[in-house]
Write a structure and sequence with these properties.
Helix content: 55-70%
CATH class: Mainly Alpha
Number of strands: 4
Strand order of the largest sheet: 1-2
CATH superfamily: 23S rRNA-intervening sequence
């Protein structure tokens, strides 16, 4: 966390600035997950849906999404990639270069597929890339099981990462269904 956040004078460590980053660190490094905020709860109304092939909106924030960075699915996928990178930097996980690299690539692939599909500009292609993103989410889940079974992750960290992966998968699934309905 060099150069980011504010200094916690009591512990001499850098504290993250944004709530999502603090929640990820709280979930993964301190212990059990923090109580989710209403907008972060599974099944909340923060699911992006299609307006036209290149315009999306969220129920919570009425307004068009012009860039892939505005998509909640991409934002959550970014959180997932960051959480995976944090987890794979810890020993003993960091010493298994093969699994650490593979799960990192899969997590990055989730957010990359969302971004690429959005930028393609057609509903059909976006739907296809969202399917790829869901596949990459499944790959991350599978590799989390391997890491847990190899005792690279304790149960609390495994559950937090698995919950985040499943949340990302659900959000992508909802967006994919909305895009599919718009294509017909």
């Amino acid at each position: 966390m060099k150069g980011r956040g504010t200094r916690d004078e009591g512990r001499g460590t850098a504290m993250p600035n944004n709530r999502a980053e603090r929640r990820i660190l709280s979930d993964l490094e301190i212990g059990p997950p923090a109580k989710p905020q209403p907008a972060d709860e599974p099944g909340s109304d923060r699911v992006a849906y299609a307006i036209s092939p290149c315009e999306y909106s969220t129920v919570a924030e009425a307004g068009p999404v012009r860039n892939f960075e505005d998509l909640i699915a991409w934002q959550k996928a970014r959180e997932l990639a960051k959480a995976i990178y944090i987890a794979t930097r810890q020993r003993p996980f960091s010493q298994d270069f093969g699994l650490a690299g593979q799960i990192q690539r899969a997590a990055v692939s989730v957010m990359s597929n969302i971004a690429e599909g959005h930028e393609r500009g057609s509903s059909s292609e976006f739907h296809h890339f969202l399917s790829n993103a869901k596949g990459s989410c499944a790959e991350v889940r599978c590799q989390l099981y391997v890491a847990f079974d190899a005792e690279y992750l304790d149960e609390g960290r495994f559950r937090a990462l698995m919950a985040l992966t499943q949340e990302v998968n659900r959000i992508i699934g909802g967006l994919r269904a909305a895009i599919g309905a718009r294509r017909k």
